[in-house]
Specification:
This protein is an alpha+beta fold.
Length: 1562
């Protein structure tokens, strides 16, 4: 039994070779080198060098092919035998009217073939039954013991196999025609119809067959023909071999037999004849005979099983009577029980059959002879059928990859090769699994293009392709290499000289075979998945054939040359179990596989791949090729080419042959000539004397083939005049024809005299090497005592090259000798020419004295004569004389340096290294070193560097030792140590953190001056000291100038002084001055600049000279916001140098004041002309106001600046808050004094700073006077202060005028009247006052109600209740909203003469970045002289509501964040950071996150404080309410003089109010 698939054990691996590049360049030479090892395995694998990667040259788009179809279980020999056997049994039961059903035993299909074989081997059915050995049969079938399986096998055998075996043995037995009716669980067997499928002709696309058309069999009926013809369809023979081959049965005319309603159609008849030997033979009849012999069956109206109903026409009466006779009893009675065979028309009584039949069977019935003849029909030859679909490489690859991925259920590249191998052999051995694959095999490269680049005229090759096109490993080149035999065959033999291409898929296989003519083969896998190979060495080829014939004799009986057809596999484990040595390998892409002569090989593909293969033959193949022809002669197999013709063609031109090939051809030619003489002698002895010359090479192969053994004749053949159609080789002269010997004649190619002449030429060519080798041996070994000249040796080497002698050891010795001699001559000439050149000789490596002596000995030992030997001897004598002279000079030291130097020069000119020359050289170097040290240490010499000193010390270590050298080295070392110590001291001074005073450095430098060495650190210290002195001089100059020094100059001096490595007393003083100036500037910045201000301090202190240009002012402010504007002095028009002159600053400031006033007036005119955003008809235009956010302010929420008259969004700027207006108290005016409400709004473009009070500024000026440094900001502050005091004086003068004093008095009376109204206990609340309120008309009748409302509304105006209470703040805002309809005005009548000066003063006061009480007084007076601005008040109330809501949310968020930080230890991100960022300036960079968070917390805290009751801060939105921290009293100078009335009013007019939230101050 063959092993199961699970038991498959991979054979051992074949040899794998990896040639070097040198070996790889000679393909056939390398193969010959590895042949002793690889031939023992039959196949081997070669991996080229890694960078040998030929491009794939096939035109993929044009490559189309039709593959072969392979059914795997039909490939394996033993499996095919089983399938043939099952087909025969199926055919037998089909004839009986039943279909074969194969039973299952122990969950596997019963192997009927093995059961039959074992029964025969055990003695037959009767013997097994008699001895009760069915259990042993079950054991041999690998069934487990017990379970009564033997009885079950017996039952199946008796039911299925035994009837068939009885028919096979010729017994006249009629079996049960329905043995499978009750076996429902058995599997019905469907015959494979192997002959039907396999009789397909070769592809019509492939016109390059190895054989001539004579090899193609006559056309047979195709499957399509049989499907169309029901008569042919019933004549299918179920066995191996092409369909219908040899049967020759033709379909009868359809009129001969018609179907009847009751019975089926009778099949055609097979004529059975009994020959004398008793064997039955099935003959095929011609159509004519067939019709004539069966004419009596035509038009039969009755079922064909009823013989009595069939009338035989056109027969004599005797024949008619004879046809009614039973073949068993020879009687014709009881014709109603006569049974007519549907195959041969013989008659049988149903009771004469064994066993007898009870009745006439229905349907088709055949007699025992017909059944036996049909089942014994030998199977026809097996072959592959061709697919019907044509593929491209892409479509075939898609199909192949899809099949493999689906079969293994995983990606194709992940399937292990071991798994594919086990599964392949499992499928091959399986009877029940029919897996079909396709294989694009034997595709001709001439038609479709080789995978390697080919040099032809079709297309231009690149240099890389050209290299691979000429490579010996290119399969188009290898068969025609010079050492190859096939290059001498002119024809392009497809597959041998011209490569074939193979496109494989998984499981596609190539079966066991050897190459045609037992040649070598080489296969290259271009790309794709591996190809698995199995190989058997040539020594075991016959053993493999014997094993396969022994195991499957049925196949070889019908097809003796089965192994030559490439259609049969056998499991390698089966072969190995019978002693056949098998090896395996996986050929991967880019690898070669070589098969050796007569080495059987097979294999399969692991997946989609593309390979190319070709044959080649070398000299060592010739004996195997001759043996192959003899083997073919015994098998009567056609040859691909004539071996004799090949040998003679090579012998005709021996000079073109490689020497090894010539020797091999000579041996083959000698054997061939001896055999030809023997055969022709036998011909003469037979009496054939006629002969004629024939150029056989000009005849087609099919016209010169032996009709007996099919060998292609070339040297000679026997022909007959009377039988011109055939000839025989001289080995079969008795098989030509029956004609007389006198009619037969010899056809020959060469006479027996010409053949020895050709043999002699081969011998001369083969032996020419021996003659040449003798000459070389005598020359190299000087056997005759005469040394040859170089010219003679070169001639011998040239002869070997011209006559293409093999690369033998002798040739290598000759080449080596020539190379060595030429090298000696060249070296000798170099020595001589070097001496002649003298001092001008080119410097190079010199030969030592020992080497010179060895060189002379080498020249003397060479087997060739060289006249340069004398020159070399002369040089050696000169060197020896020089050596003696040098020794004498060295012995008399100290010699003069001049003598030593001259001796040294002479030694150099010799071109040879003398030991004494080295000693002379050391003495000369010592003298030079001492001289250099002396010059370096001389007092008058230039100071050397430390590197020079160290170099001298290092050089002194290598000179020849002496007392003078030791003394000089000690002096150098001492000097170097001192210099390094001082250099280190200077380095410490330069690098130390504690700087030394200039005096210390001067002392160090002075002491180092005495050392005669250049010290870099001392020099750097000198330079630093010089810079320090210059710095001190600069400081003295700047401190003693006419003015205080500028801060910039001091900062520059401090930066330079800090970089100097010198301790400077003045530096600390300067640093203190700079620090004090920075401290003052920081304090001034905090006083003036808002948080996150976009302005610098200097810009705030200076007048805005370009205030008249709204676009310029706005763009400059936006640039400041974005950080794009950097200049502090651009508005004053001063350069950095001008700022150092106080006069320039004052003049520029005065000019700026005037420009600022003119500019703001121009801006007011421009902005007043713009449409109001509160109007319903407002549209965007070029003259429309633009808010700081870049949008057009429109609708409710827009505010107009009181200074520049431009409009802004209330939410984008800081606005005054009404709840911060003067709170009521027992002495305060009522809330209905609306002219005192804080409604004044200045935009951020006009109000650039915090506007501190004048008292604060005066304190800054006092601090400035104490500074010994000048700052531009200080001078600007002085100018600003002078401007503010000047304005204050003019304002007080205006307020003290008679008219203005009267107006102020009237306002005071009005306030007193409102204050004097009584307040009820339970005041009512009014959500809003009616429009007809008498207060509008100036009546005081309802004043008590109002006063009561104000008192009850203390929670609205009292800061103690405003901030903490959320509900009260909301009620306060609602209360203020309800009072709006009650407000009336104007309260005063201001004449134009009074109003104009006050408005001009108000304009100038608003331009000042200083808070003055007079400014607010003027503003209140002007407010009282006009109606109340209800739209602005309403807008401010709405904004304050929204702001208070946001403030509460931010307060809660701040508290939550603080709590979270406490819980997390102060870490974590702020979830409300984005909400708390300033509206117009937000930090977007990650580096600003921490600073931003701290800033937000500070703002929130300040905001909380601002809304709290403790310390109300000044509002940035109203410049007149600042001053709660500075006190409510007026300035000292305001207590006397004409401004007394003003001083009385100031406590009532100026009440502090809380600061605006920080987020609105930016």
């Amino acid at each position: 039994m063959e092993p199961g698939s699970d038991d498959f054990l991979p054979p051992p691996e074949c040899p794998v070779f990896e040639p070097s590049w040198a070996e790889f360049r000679d393909p056939l030479g390398y193969i010959a080198k590895i042949r002793p090892i690889a031939e023992k395995s039959g196949i081997c694998k070669i991996r080229p060098p890694a960078d040998w990667q030929p491009p794939f040259a096939v035109e993929v788009d044009n490559f189309r092919f039709t593959p072969r179809i392979q059914r795997l279980n039909e490939l394996e020999a033993q499996t095919r035998v089983k399938l043939n056997y099952l087909d025969q049994i199926a055919k037998f039961w089909e004839i009986q009217g039943s279909s074969l059903k194969i039973p299952n035993v122990e969950r596997r299909i019963l192997d009927l073939y093995s059961l039959s074989k074992i029964v025969v081997e055990e003695g037959g059915y009767e013997a097994i039954c008699k001895d009760r050995r069915w259990a042993r049969v079950a054991q041999r079938l690998n069934y487990p013991p017990g379970k009564n399986i033997g009885s079950l096998l017996r039952s199946h055998y008796e039911r299925i196999v035994y009837p068939y075996e009885m028919y096979q043995s010729g017994a006249n037995l009629v079996c049960n025609t329905r043995p499978f009716d009750n076996e429902e669980k058995d599997k019905e067997y469907k015959p494979h119809s192997i002959p039907l499928r396999q009789s397909v002709q070769p592809s019509k696309f492939n016109s390059y067959g190895r054989r001539a058309k004579r090899l193609q069999p006559d056309p047979e009926p195709t499957e399509e023909d049989i499907e169309k013809n029901p008569e042919l369809k019933k004549l299918q023979i179920y066995g191996a071999g092409p369909k219908m081959m040899g049967l020759g049965l033709m379909a009868k005319d359809k009129t001969l037999r018609k179907k009847d309603k009751e019975g089926p159609e009778c099949p055609p008849t097979v004529v059975v004849k009994e020959e004398s030997g008793g064997d039955m033979k099935v003959e095929s009849a011609s159509p004519k005979t067939f019709i004539e012999s069966k004419e009596e069956l035509s038009h039969s109206p009755e079922p064909c099983t009823k013989m009595t109903m069939r009338l035989r026409r056109n027969h004599s009466n005797a024949q008619f009577i004879e046809s009614y006779v039973c073949r068993m009893c020879s009687r014709g009675d009881e014709d109603d029980k006569l049974l007519l065979c549907d195959g041969c028309d013989d008659n049988y009584h149903i009771f004469c059959l064994l066993p007898p039949l009870p009745e006439i069977p229905k349907g088709v019935w055949r007699c025992p002879k017909c059944v036996m003849a049909e089942c014994k029909r030998p199977p026809e030859a097996f072959g592959f059928e061709q697919a019907t679909r044509e593929y491209t490489l892409q479509s075939f690859g898609e199909m192949a990859d899809s099949f493999k991925a689906d079969y293994f259920n995983m990606p194709v590249h992940m399937v292990p090769t071991e798994l594919v191998e086990k599964e392949f052999w499992r499928l091959v051995n399986s009877i029940e699994e029919d897996v079909t694959v396709e294989y694009g095999a034997d595709i001709h490269s001439k038609e479709f293009g080789s995978g390697f680049p080919v040099s032809d005229s079709k297309r231009h090759l690149t240099p890389e392709e050209e290299e691979y096109a000429t490579s010996g490993w290119n399969l188009n080149v290898m068969p025609v290499l010079e050492q190859s035999v096939l290059c001498h065959i002119n024809a392009d033999i497809s597959g041998m000289k011209v490569p074939w291409l193979y496109v494989g898929m998984v499981f596609s296989a190539f079966c066991w075979h050897i190459e045609d003519h037992w040649s070598y083969s080489i296969n290259y896998l271009h790309w794709g998945e591996p190809k698995t190979w199995y190989g058997v060495p040539s020594l075991a080829a016959e053993h493999l054939e014997e094993v396969m014939k022994k195991l499957t004799p049925e196949l070889f009986d019908s097809q003796p040359d089965l192994l030559h057809q490439l259609v049969t596999l056998m499991n390698p484990n089966t072969l190995m179990s019978h002693g056949v040595p098998v090896v395996r390998t996986n050929q991967c892409a880019g690898e070669f596989v070589i098969t050796f002569p007569r080495a059987y090989h097979s294999g399969f593909n692991q997946g989609y791949n593309f390979a190319e293969a070709v044959n080649f033959c070398t000299a060592d193949w010739l004996p195997a090729g001759r043996q192959c022809i003899e083997h073919y002669r015994r098998l009567r197999r056609y040859c691909v080419f004539s071996h004799e013709e090949l040998i003679c063609k090579m012998a005709a031109c021996p000079e073109k042959l490689d020497l090894n090939l010539a020797a091999a051809v000579h041996k083959e030619m000698f054997i061939m000539v001896q055999e030809e003489r023997r055969l022709r002698k036998a011909l003469l002895e037979k009496g054939i004397t006629e002969a004629e010359r024939e150029a056989f090479e000009l005849l087609p192969d099919d016209e010169r083939q032996c009709i007996k053994c099919k060998t292609t004749c070339f040297l000679s053949a026997l022909a007959c005049y009377d039988c011109p159609d055939g000839l025989v080789c001289l080995s079969h002269i008795n098989d030509l024809c029956k004609c007389s010997s006198s009619r037969q004649y010899l056809r020959y190619r060469y006479t027996l005299d010409e053949l020895p002449a050709m043999l002699h030429k081969l011998k001369v060519r083969a032996e020419s090497f021996d003659t040449w080798a003798n000459k070389v041996r005598v020359a190299l070994e000087v056997e005759d005592g005469r040394k040859r000249s170089l010219e003679e040796l070169r001639a011998l080497e040239s002869e070997a090259r011209e006559r293409r002698f093999p690369n033998s050891e002798l040739l290598q010795r000759l080449k080596s000798c020539l190379s060595e001699a030429e090298a000696c001559v060249s070296q000798a000439l170099g020595l001589v020419s070097g001496q002649e050149a003298g001092p001008h000789r080119v410097a190079g490596p010199q030969m030592t004295l020992a080497e010179l002596q060895a060189f002379l000995d080498q020249m003397n030992n060479l087997p060739c004569a060289m006249h340069q030997i004398g020159d070399v001897k002369g040089i050696l004598e000169q060197v020896e004389a020089y050596q003696a002279e040098a020794r004498e000079a060295l012995a008399s030291l100290p010699s003069s340096p001049g003598l030593l130097q001259s001796l040294l020069e002479r030694g150099r000119q010799l071109g040879v290294e003398v030991p004494e020359a080295q000693q002379l050289q050391r003495q000369v170097e010592q003298a030079r070193w001492l001289d250099e040290v002396k010059r370096t240490l001389a007092p008058s010499a230039r100071r050397g560097t430390l590197a020079v000193m160290r170099g001298l010390l290092v050089a002194g270590a290598s000179v020849a030792p002496s007392s003078a050298v030791d003394k000089a080295r000690a002096e150098l070392q001492e000097l170097l140590t001192i210099a390094e110590r001082w250099e280190e001291k200077a380095h410490l001074c330069l690098e130390a953190r504690q700087k030394h005073p200039p005096a210390t450095l001067e002392a160090i430098i002075h002491e180092a001056e005495n050392i005669p060495v250049h010290l870099p650190n001392i020099q750097a210290l000198k330079e630093a000291l010089a810079k320090a002195r210059a710095w001190i001089a600069d400081v003295d100059e700047i401190q003693n100038g006419d003015h205080y020094p500028c801060l910039d100059d001091l900062e520059g001096l401090v930066a330079v002084g800090r970089d100097l490595p010198v301790g400077l007393e003045e530096l600390r003083q300067l640093e203190l001055q700079v620090l004090t100036a920075h401290s003052w500037r920081e304090k001034a910045s905090k006083t003036f600049l808002k948080k996150n201000s976009c302005y610098t301090l200097l810009e705030v202190l200076c007048p805005c000279a370009d205030a008249g240009s709204d676009s310029t002012k706005r763009s400059r402010w936006m640039e400041k916001e974005l950080g794009l504007y950097k200049s502090d002095t651009e508005l004053l028009g001063l350069s950095a140098q001008d700022l150092r002159d106080p006069g320039s600053v004052i003049v520029a400031f005065k000019e700026g004041e005037q420009k600022e006033k003119e500019g703001i007036l121009q801006l007011r005119r421009t902005n007043s002309a713009k449409p109001s955003p509160l109007a319903s008809s407002t549209t965007a235009s070029s003259a429309t106001s633009i808010c700081v956010c870049g949008q057009v302010p429109a609708g409710v929420g827009a505010l107009q600046c009181d200074l520049c008259q431009d409009w802004f969004h209330g939410r984008c700027v800081s606005v005054p808050r009404l709840l911060s207006s003067p709170r009521p108290s027992p002495t305060s005016p009522p809330l209905l004094a609306w002219w005192e409400w804080d409604t004044k709004f200045l935009c951020p473009l006009c109000m650039r700073s915090r506007r501190p009070r004048l008292e604060t500024i005066l304190a800054l000026l006092v601090a400035l006077q104490r500074l010994p440094v000048r700052l531009p900001e200080g001078e600007a502050l002085q100018c600003l202060t002078e401007r503010a005091i000047s304005w204050q004086g003019r304002a007080r003068q205006a307020l003290a005028s008679e008219d203005v004093t009267a107006l102020l008095g009237r306002l005071a009376e009005l306030r007193q009247r409102l204050q004097a109204e009584p307040r009820p206990e339970e005041p009512p609340t009014y959500p809003s006052a009616p429009a007809s309120d008498p207060l509008r008309e100036g009546s005081g009748k309802d004043m008590p109600k109002v006063q009561g409302l104000l008192e009850n509304g203390d929670s609205v105006t009292s800061p103690e209740k405003v901030a903490p209470g959320e509900g009260s703040g909301k009620r306060d805002l609602e209360l203020l909203s309800s009072l709006l309809p009650q407000l009336t005005g104007p309260m005063l009548e201001l004449p134009e003469a009074t109003r104009a000066p006050l408005e001009e003063l108000m304009l100038e006061g608003d331009l000042l970045e200083v808070t003055l009480d007079e400014n607010h007084s003027i503003w209140q007076l002007l407010q009282a002289g006009q109606p109340p601005d209800l739209e602005r008040i309403r807008t401010l109330l709405e904004l304050e509501k929204a702001e208070r809501h946001g403030s509460r949310a931010r307060g809660r968020a701040l508290e939550r964040r603080r709590r979270r930080k406490v819980d997390r230890g102060g870490e974590g991100d702020d979830p409300v950071r984005e909400e708390l960022e300033p509206k117009r300036v937000r930090s977007s960079g990650p580096e600003a996150e921490e600073a931003q968070e701290a800033q937000e917390e500070e703002e929130l805290e300040e905001e909380a404080v601002a809304e709290g009751p403790a310390q109300p801060l000044p509002s940035t939105g109203s410049p007149s309410t600042q001053g709660s921290q500075d006190g409510l009293e007026p300035a000292p100078e305001a207590s006397s003089g004409p401004s007394a009335p003003f001083s009385i009013l100031t406590p009532q007019l100026h009440v502090p109010c809380p600061q605006q939230p920080p987020q609105q101050q930016s």
